[in-house]
Amino acid sequence: MTFYTLLRLHQRIKSRRLKLLGLLAASKFGLRHLSIRIDPVLGCNLACRMCSFSSAEFRKKQKGALTKEEMEGIARVLFPRSFQLMVGCGAEPTKHPGYLELFKLAKKYGVPDIGIVTNGQTLKRHDIEVMKETGVREITLSVHGVKKGTYEKFMTGASYEKFLEVMANIKQIREQSGDKKKPAIRINYTVNSENLEELKDFFEVFRQLPVDVLQIRPIMDIGGKYRKQLTEDLIPKYNETIRILEEECGQRNIRLLANTMDASYDKPNHDSDIAGLVYTYISPKTAGQLDVNWQQSSFSEYRKSDKWIPQLWKVFLRKNSEGNGLDKSLKYEDLS
């Protein structure tokens, strides 16, 4: 079972309480029901203009890295209950010299869906080969411009040529292994008023790249230097661009994820608190925040610390979501 399978299932099941009861049952019977999102290190090698890491003040506050022993403890406690591990959740995971160890641990504990979110600028061929060997299903690369000038403008410190080199390495490794679909490539493109126009040319420029999933996100204000959301007059152009990409993705058998229902992020997300019970964020600060010791704690002790059960019942008794940090980030549909 993959994230996309669960996303389709989530979209089909309309009852919030049925979803919550399913989560409770999975937890009670020791089934995999968590999506673990790990930042092994709090830092980034770039200063992308739409990202909070473009703020010098924010960067100063982001410190810390997981030790090898902490990674092993996190894996022992959480990975047997996880259907997905995603390495990288805002920070850049490849800044951690031992980040590949997380993939080896995920394989050891049988996590079915393993992935990484990265800007790709420090990915070496060896890293990709290790990901292939350890069963990484998907590499998500941030790409915020189709043309070199736009790409390097919004991904401050990045090299367009390095991005193309990484994509070429992935393609070659897949072809040499005989499995041309793994690891899959997911492109995460955050749309603003300056990079919207060239988005329609995505497949004309990148027609040779081994893209499997294209994810389009209208810009959100997350504290970056560039915060201009799409204006109302640009929404029709944005929707038309998505329509063009939907047709082209269909012709190429590429999955398209996009926000077409609320590009301005004005509407509440009624399932964000349910997603908050599934998505489990771990960083170098988590142990201190929850007062847990990864090397010694059990899953039940962790569960008591993060108050998951009381939170589930609180959500169950509410009629609608009250929203959380996932309220905007989860607003996309599978248009495949």
From TrEMBL:
Protein name (record): Radical SAM protein
Protein species of origin: Marinilabilia rubra
CDD domains: Radical_SAM
UniProt xrefs under SMART domains: Elp3
InterPro entries, per database record: Aldolase_TIM (IPR013785), Elp3/MiaA/NifB-like_rSAM (IPR006638), Radical_SAM_PqqE_MftC-like (IPR050377), rSAM (IPR007197), rSAM_sf (IPR058240)
Cytoplasm is among the record's keywords: no
Keywords: Iron, Iron-sulfur, Metal-binding, S-adenosyl-L-methionine
UniProt lineage: Bacteria, Pseudomonadati, Bacteroidota, Bacteroidia, Marinilabiliales
A molecular-function term among this protein's GO annotations: catalytic activity
Cofactor: [4Fe-4S] cluster
Domain Radical SAM core: residue ranges: 28-257
Keyword Iron-sulfur (UniProt): yes
Pfam families: Radical_SAM
